Amino acid sequence: MNELYLQALKKWSDDVKKTIQMEDLPEETINTWGNWDEEIQASLENGVEQEQLIKLHQQGEELQRHLSDSSKELIRADYANHVLPPLPYAYDALEPYISEEIMRLHHLVHHQAYVNGLNKAEEEIYYRNHEPDMLRHWLREQAFNGSGHLLHSVFWKNMTPYSSKVPSKQIEQWINRDFGSFAHFKEGFTNVAKSVQGPGWAALLYDPVNHRLVIESIEKHQQNHLVSMIPLLVLDMWEHAYYLQYKTEKADYVEAWWNIVDWEDVNNRLLRAMNIRD
Ligand SMILES: [Fe+2]
What we know:
This is superoxide dismutase. InterPro entries: Fe/Mn_Superoxide_Dismutase, Mn/Fe_SOD, Mn/Fe_SOD_BS, Mn/Fe_SOD_C, Mn/Fe_SOD_N, Mn/Fe_SOD_N_sf, SOD_C_sf. The chain is mainly alpha-helical. The protein has 3 domains: 2-70; 100-157, Helix Hairpins; 169-273, Iron/manganese superoxide dismutase, C-terminal domain (minor pseudopilin epsh fold), CATH 3.55.40.20. It has 10 helices and 3 strands. The chain has helices at residues 2-21, 27-46, 50-70, 100-127, 132-157, 169-179, 182-195, 243-246, 250-257, 263-273, and strands at residues 200-207, 212-219, 230-236. The protein has a 3-stranded antiparallel β-sheet. Strand 1 (200-207) and strand 2 (212-219) form a beta hairpin. Helix 4 packs antiparallel against helix 5 (132-157) and helix 6 (169-179) packs across helix 10. It is globular and about 50 Å long. The structure holds fe (ii) ion. Residues 106, 110, 152, 236, 238, 240-241 line the site of fe (ii) ion (FE2). The site of fe (ii) ion has 7 residues, from helix 4.
């Protein structure tokens, strides 16, 4: 299982390497990425423990953030080239709370479909000319698939096999300040998740206008524009996210999910979001 995951990381690293070669980046930055790439190669040859695998993934994320900061002025925004991000853990890592079968289908089939749909929509919107009727269709496709891609990308990172089960640091303080207590927030978020009719999400968001936390459901995301709220913690309530394992027991799925929330990730998202003020 870890080997499959390492191969996905290696592919990610190779893709980034191709981009790096086309840019004029400082040698030190290129070398740092090279060292990380070598570490993956070594892990592929010698094997690696799950915990070390997660660390490797986190290092890759950090490096990529650093790379995109260094290259901000060098490359223009590009469209229609989104790729499926690898999961930050193996497909069976969240068991027994979420089964390997669900994770595999959810990531490889459903999320991939959003990525493909977004690339297609962007190609039509940014690289072709359309009459208003057709343009409206592709804009809806962009909203639907773009929101799906973003929400799933956050959702994967919001989970971990090593959950602390309760929030800490700033996110704990903010939850206590805005909702009174973690128990009160958990109850509110759970109720929102259970209230979702059909496909949709429950979400904890950062509101940069009022500088506070907000809980909401995101239904019919092709009609919702995530304009000013920044997702910190999201829970996929589409049937594909739980049905194979939990059938119609939506509440059991939500209850199990609380055991795998990555509060460290939620806290880091809050710290980054707090810099954005209207
Ligand atoms: Fe999903």
